Give the backbone structure.
Amino acid sequence: MFSLKDKIFVITGATRGLGKEFVDCLSKVTDINSIIVLDLPQNIIDLNINNNIYYFPMDLRDVCSIQKAFKNIKNSFGQIDVLINNAGVNKLISALSVTEDIWDSIIDVNLKGTFFACKEAFPCLVQSNDGCIINIASQYSIVGGKYRCPYAASKAGIVSITKTLALEWAGHGIRVNAISPTISVKSSNENLLELPTVKEELLKNIPLGRFCTSKDIIGAIIYLASSEAAMVTGHNLLIDGGWTV
Ligand SMILES: NC(=O)c1ccc[n+]([C@@H]2O[C@H](COP(=O)([O-])OP(=O)(O)OC[C@H]3O[C@@H](n4cnc5c(N)ncnc54)[C@H](O)[C@@H]3O)[C@@H](O)[C@H]2O)c1
């Protein structure tokens, strides 16, 4: 059950935060063939290179950079079995303070970057005969979140891309799903979440009473990537401790 044997994974934005923890976990608990991490060039220097983990530079804001990264993967590996679009950025800011630059900086990485990563991965996913995309969205893909206008819009857009590609690519044997976690304490948000009032206020929204961790999400990744999820596509799986209920 839930075998990922010999699969080739590609994951974006996995040199820190949730993505890095997904890679650590996948490399330990499964007999995956290779894990290819795509991240900003400045983040992939001085990394401990592991046997089956490969790092390629890619900037999701730049479509040429995305094309180059997936061309390199095609030349070196031939196919991709699982693409995890994990990279994402956020900035907490009131709607009235959002400038065009701030809007673009979030939408370009989260929405445009995710779409073009899917598009450029397509030829390699087709080669798999069992290709699968997992887009990391957020609970804010389906509920509003104060001070998160561009972020929430980008994550709702990711769910929309997920559903549309699920329809368009089902005939190519590619399943496309999203995972929407609640808040997880990571270097990107820990300063904010350490403030007792903020933490308390946010936790009030989570009936299960805690933030989520990569361990809460990895099981969903393994399930969606495995053949046990062969009939699951276009789904947005919430891992939110009940926030959106
Ligand atoms: N941490 C949370 O509370 C939380 C909750 C729900 C969803 N998410 C989502 O999970 C994902 C990971 O979140 P995290 O908290 O680990 O974030 P993080 O900031 O710790 O890591 C983000 C990763 O994306 C990479 N990245 C940023 N811009 C990039 C670009 N232009 N090109 C390529 N890579 C780029 C970074 O280098 C980094 O490795 C994101 O999509 C985020 O929206 C996070």
Observations:
- The beta strands are 8-12, 34-39, 53-57, 82-85, 132-136, 175-181, 236-239.
